Amino acid sequence: DAKTTQPPSMDCAEGRAANLPCNHSTISGNEYVYWYRQIHSQGPQYIIHGLKNNETNEMASLIITEDRKSSTLILPHATLRDTAVYYCIVRNPLTTDSWGKFQFGAGTQVVVTP
Amino acid sequence: EPEVTQTPSHQVTQMGQEVILRCVPISNHLYFYWYRQILGQKVEFLVSFYNNEISEKSEIFDDQFSVERPDGSNFTLKIRSTKLEDSAMYFCASSAGTASTNEKLFFGSGTQLSVL
Asked: What is the pLDDT along chain B (116 residues), one digit of tens a residue?
């Protein structure tokens, strides 16, 4: 699986959009970009994932660059409850090899302030 | 939404004692996992389990650890002789295992293990 690089921390004002970058320059063509978050030592929570196209769900939007070497997670209207560590992970879900290989890095600590 | 449940939420044990951490994965899922997170560190993969056998394990998952699916619903992690460094939050996870584009892991809320 490709490795990812994320900034260690970022702050965001409540009500504003939070844009979380992730670099994955060695991603291969069949690897998806997944985002999870972990709120204060709770279990990691799935947010969104995508391959090439931009994706949106009720939690967030995922923007993937055309060359797929980087992506941005967008929380459109951050709330205090969005304070968490956000993890960007690349993984191929279409094989039955290495099912355990959701490799978590250090992530980005996002603090939403009032 | 279906969820992975873990018990107990906190477990305190003496060094050298055996502990069993319990998990009930999402009912129609086929792959099960244990991860751990030592305080202030990354979430680390321990083991994955499919079709009643270990499919992959990390270097952390040594002979002190074992996993079992004793019945149709529970998935357990046993640590035979706990050490101080086993103190961590242990997360169970499950996935449908369909090798589809929507494959994702669902995590439980964790068991905080404290070894004294």
From this structure: 789 999 999 999 999 999 999 999 999 899 999 999 999 999 999 999 988 999 889 999 999 999 999 887 899 999 999 999 999 999 999 998 777 777 889 999 999 999 99
Set of chain A residues whose Cβ sits within 8 Å of the Cβ of B89: 41
> Are residues A42 and B100, on separate chains, in Cβ contact within 8 Å?
no
Residue type for position B49:
F
- The tokens describing B62, both together, are 């040594």
CB count within 10 Å of CB A12 equals 19
Q: Does B100 touch chain A (CB under 8 A)?
A: yes
A54 alpha-carbon distance from chain centroid: 13
Name beta bridge partners: A23.
A5, A70
Whole-angstrom distance, CA of residue A41 vs CA of residue B24? 19
The count of CB pairs under 8 A between chains A and B is 67
